[in-house]
Amino acid sequence: MRKYLKPCSILILLFWGAAAFVYLPETTRSLNQAATEKLESSQYLGIFSEVNARFHGQEATLTGVVALDEEKQLAEKVIRTEVRLPNERGASHNPVTAVHNEIRVDPNATNRKRPWIIASLFQENQRLDGVLKSSEQRTKLLAQIASRAPMATLNNQILVNEPSLPASAWEATLDQVPNFKNILAGKKDKEQAIIAVTLCDGKWTTFPPTATDAEIATLLQDRKISPHEITHSLHALRAWRTSPNSEEVARLAAEKSKNDAAELALANAQKSAQAEREAQKLATLSPSYIGLTALNQKINLFGQVPAEAQKSQAITSAQSIYPGYEIDGTQITIDASRVLPAASNFTLPAGKDNFIAFATFDGTNKLYPADVFDSEIAKDFPSLKFGDDELSNLLIHFRTNLASAGTITRDEPYVAIATDGKSLILTGEVAEIATKASLLEKVAAANPGVKLVDKVQVSSLVNTVTEFSPTLDSTPNFAGVSAGVAIARLGQKWRNAVVHSIYFKTGSDRSKDQERAIYQMRRVRELLPNASFEVVGHTDDVGSADSNRKLSLERAQSFVSYATGSGFDPAMFTSRGAGQDEPITPNETENGKALNRRVDVMLK
Predict the structure, then answer these.
(1) Which of 214, 278, 386, 478 would give a disulfide with 262, using CB separation of 3.0 to 4.6 Å?
(2) DSSP, res 425
(3) Coil, strand, or helix at residue 573?
């Protein structure tokens, strides 16, 4: 019986691997389709028309733009809880394991309508034009205007558009409706007219009946309305004011000429603004690319291309450059929004085993060693706009295999905190789920009443630490603070006011902690947009004090250059070199010296 055990185990593993080979790509495609259909469903009124959801396995990344922060959160909730696989087995189960929400919130970047009202009142007539979000708002507005301007005839042209942006101060807008009856009382026949305009922000602006379209358009310039909508809304008032008097005719003709010129200028300005928006939108689109890993005579291709033709081109190129290698292209994803250069010049670099490579369709390509940092790849290909964890997720299996074989070394686990007193982001990398659970429980208990945001990753690429009670026992409390940060290597005590510490081996200026520090600074800036940093270099006590002070300053300035090259404003940083004067542990052991060779990024 025992002699069959090993062959059976091998068959089970082969069967599992084959099933994953077929199932995972199909799952990704199905989830992409299901997520798109869910976001485009009528129940969300088009608020996600400019949002894209893309899966890698069962993890979703949301990109695009919405007008409101609550819409950004709703999009994440929809994907996290409502997406279902379109088959009987998955119909009642949400398969999404994680959602990376990179949606941008910008009311001015969306094409959704914004609320506005133009009320024109003259003699016994009144006309209302504009856009509101609901028929209930329209009904209340009509009743309020009727109480303040009891005219005989009402021409209501207000459009109800449910997907439009909400009014910023609707109740105040109702309360502040002008008392048109009192304003017009005592005026002569041709003067008994007024124009009132609101952006539904709690304020009304009144204009005389002689106001031009350009004057009114200035107030409504951010409402993205056509100049003809203003002309159309005031047509009845202006027709009423028309007189056969030659002077009046001449004046109206001059006014029309002025209006026409203003409308033309406004139309040209809007056309230019639209062209600029289209250019900006094109600039936000990411180019197509292909990445690959090479390990044990096997090439794994991944990336984003707009069509099957580019996928086939990448596979054919890999087969030509790497004869004798097994080529796997199943992880190349088709994304129609990816752009290609006018003249495609795609080629993959040639290399030996255990490497990573990236190539775009403009002829750019680069080969990297197996231990390359994600930040180094992102810096070489800035147009690809990789998300914080995107490269890590793409390369995790390759790196895990290399770490298991001892080809690359595992990093030290760490945890970090950033808080504004209301929310607390906990980030880091640990080796075990149980370790993460202990950290989350301890941080939550030490900071009651603060919203805890979990961004700790369980990674096979960091070392296991079995004894980390010094970290748990020193968990910081941020009660009553408006801004705070802390950092700890697992197994060591927390260090307050430190965003991240970058440790170096003797004679080396390259450290994985550099990109960890960049990641953590971005989390700090999410909570504290005006945050700035002091970068302090430190050394052990080997060598002279003067040379150590110089070395520590050079390392601090080197990291500032690294950070600014990653997109941070140089004005955010100051730097100094402390040399060997500020150790965090005695320099009596090699481990103590290693902890003192560091650069601390401090929150100022």
Answers:
(1) 214
(2) E
(3) strand
* Tokens read off for 514: 């550099």
Residue 577 bridge partners (DSSP): 537
Q: Where are the alpha helices (DSSP H) in 128-179?
A: 135-148, 170-175
Q: DSSP label at 197?
A: E
Contact predicate 557/575, CB 8 Å: yes
Structure token pair of residue 84? 């279902």
* 173 neighbors 201 (Cβ within 8 angstroms): yes
How many other C-beta atoms lie within 10 A of the C-beta of residue 219?
A: 16
Report residue 331 as tokens: 């992880």
Identify the residue whose tokens are 């019986």.
1
In Å, what is the CA distance from 518 to each residue of 388, 420, 499, 512, 514? 10, 19, 10, 10, 6
Report residue 555: phi and psi, to 5°.
-70, -40
Please name which of 195, 204, 194, 218 lies closest in space to residue 167, comparing C-alpha atoms.
204
With CA atoms as reference, report the closest residue to 568 among 529, 510, 511, 513.
529
Angle between helices 545-565 and 512-527 (to 10 degrees): 60
Which strands make up the sheet holding 365-369, listed edge to edge? 326-334, 298-305, 289-295, 355-360, 365-369
Q: Answer yes or no: are the C-beta atoms of 194 and 240 closer than 8 Å.
A: no
Position 87 scores a pLDDT of 63
| Pair of tokens at residue 26 | 């199909």
The number of angstroms, rounded, from the C-alpha of 480 to the middle of its chain's C-alpha atoms is: 29
Strand pairing of 116-122 and 355-360? unpaired
Tokens (6 digits) for 323: 């004869």
Does an H or E element contain 355, and which? strand 355-360
Structure tokens at 281: 């939108």
Predicted confidence (pLDDT) per residue in 332-383, tens digit: 999 998 999 888 899 999 998 899 999 999 999 999 999 999 988 998 999 8
- Residue 117 contacts residue 141 (beta carbons within 8 Å): yes
Distance in angstroms (rounded) separating the CA atoms of residues 555 and 561: 10
What's the one-letter identity of residue 270? Q
598 vs 528, 539, 559, CA distance in Å? 25, 6, 11
Examine the pLDDT at 42 and tell me if it is beyond 80.
no
pLDDT top residue among 226 and 450? 450
| DSSP code, position 124 | T
Structure tokens at 398: 């390759």
Contact present, 462 and 431 (Cβ < 8 Å): yes
Give the other-Cβ count within 10 Å of 197's Cβ. 23
Distance between CA atoms of residues 351 and 289, nearest Å: 18
pTM of structure: 0.51
Residue in the block written with tokens 């056309």: 271
Q: How many CA atoms lie within 13 A of 143 on its CB side?
A: 8
Report how far apart the first and last C-alpha atoms of the chain are (Å, whole number).
Answer: 68
